[in-house]
Amino acid sequence: MVAEILxxxxxxxxxxxxxxxxxxxxxxxxxxxxxxxxxxxEVFANRHNEGxxxxxKVAAQHYGYTFKAHDALEDVRATLHVYRKVQEEGK
Length: 91
Prior knowledge:
mainly alpha, 5 helices
């Protein structure tokens, strides 16, 4: 069921795509078949953190967003917020 949802998605968004990719791969979900969105963690790191990885909480706070980290729904909302902000900056 998860594979069907991910494969039918226009884009798959994750903060730290590399981690999610490996997690999906270990669980047999063929992440190479997914249409990944640009990784907001990488973009944030390159623009605001001298290329160093930053926690989602750090990136979200940079853009004025606070949330309860390590809560699935909260993490998704924060990831979307950071993604939108880095996309806006890129325009």
